[in-house]
Write a structure and sequence with these properties.
CATH architecture of the largest domain: Orthogonal Bundle
Number of helices: 12
Largest sheet: 3 strands, antiparallel
Shape: elongated
Oligomer: single chain
Strand order of the largest sheet: 1-2-3
CATH class of the largest domain: Mainly Alpha
Helix content: 40-55%
Strand content: under 5%
CATH superfamily of the largest domain: Cyclin-like
Number of domains: 3
Number of strands: 3
CATH topology of the largest domain: Cyclin A, domain 1
Length: about 300
């Protein structure tokens, strides 16, 4: 079962749970905190993905029943070129030649897709570990990349860029609040190559898999940037209401970077609430330029009420 999207819907209120205010709206942030958007009360932490722990042989057997026993690619046993056995003892010359020959034969039987998977799977796992990506998103990213390899889109192109693009496509499918710039920074590859690979995935891979790419929205970014800037929940809620009010009065968000819109409403809200944050601080957190911040703030200010002085 596909987990619910993060940051797009408010969490349902349990009837037996004690209300924090008259109109509670529980919102799950990207850091896993469950908080009320109206009063700012933090209910607790909701972990996106838990670490797998097994201390006994029975726990190992019971927790692996739903996992695949073998990989879906490559040989189960890899014969390497070595002159020692499993215990570290030196092999005889004839036996060493035999294993070297078997290693070459095994290498010739592995096709190009399996070689691709041998290289790409560890890179995807390492990238998800550094970014603390949940397991279900990593599985979706691997399914997307497997389809990319089957369509031979990686021929003549960078494997790293397609691995990164597949991961970001899975993040956007599940509406998980992670920025493309963050993933590219960890992967240490050019942003332009990831954009090209992502375009191929959106056009040629996702429609075949019946998956829908969801563009990132500025709404969850408001709470994320606000937490990084140490802004109060009152200011974050006020910024959310400013964006909602400007959208009702004709603010067009299509074709504009959501990071710039979220940063602009936070800048206006912090200024109105008396929390001093410089344009440089907000621009650095949102990974935009100060010119973009001022431009978006001017556009949003023009769609707000005249009584709201900024």
């Amino acid at each position: 079962m596909t987990p619910p999207p993060y940051g797009s819907n408010f969490e349902d209120i349990d009837e037996n749970e004690e209300f924090c205010c008259e109109n509670p709206e529980i919102f799950v942030t990207d850091d896993g905190f469950r908080l009320c958007r109206n009063c700012g009360l933090v209910f607790g932490t909701e972990y996106v993905s838990t670490e797998r722990r097994a201390y006994t042989a029975d726990e190992v057997r019971s927790r692996r029943r739903t996992e695949p026993r073998w990989r879906s690619y490559g040989p189960r046993t890899v014969i390497g070129i070595t002159s020692t056995d499993s215990k570290g003892r030196q092999l005889a010359s004839r036996r060493a030649q035999l294993f070297n020959r078997l290693s070459k034969i095994q290498g010739s039987l592995i096709n190009s897709i399996e070689r691709n998977f041998w290289e790409s799977r560890p890179k995807l796992a390492s990238l998800c570990q550094k970014l603390q990506i949940p397991d279900f998103i990593q599985e979706s990213a691997w399914k997307i990349y497997s389809e990319v390899a089957k369509q031979k889109l990686t021929m003549g192109r960078s494997i790293e860029s397609f691995v990164t693009a597949s991961l970001y496509a899975a993040i956007r499918i599940h509406d998980f609040p992670r920025l493309l710039e963050e993933i590219v920074e960890v992967a240490m590859i050019p942003l332009r190559s990831v954009h090209r690979s992502l375009g191929l995935i959106v056009r040629m891979v996702l429609p075949k898999m019946n998956l829908r790419y969801h563009p990132i929205s500025p709404n969850p970014l408001i709470y994320r940037f606000g937490a990084e800037l140490d802004l109060s929940i009152t200011t974050q809620k006020y910024a959310f209401d400013l964006l909602k009010s400007a959208s009702k009065r004709g603010l067009r968000k299509m074709g504009k970077d959501p990071k710039g819109i979220a940063a602009a409403v936070l800048y206006l809200a912090a200024k109105q609430q008396g929390e001093r944050k410089t344009q440089t601080q907000i621009a650095n957190v949102a990974r935009i330029t100060e010119v973009t911040l001022r431009t978006r703030a001017k556009q949003i200010r023009g769609h707000l009420l005249v009584s709201q002085n900024f």
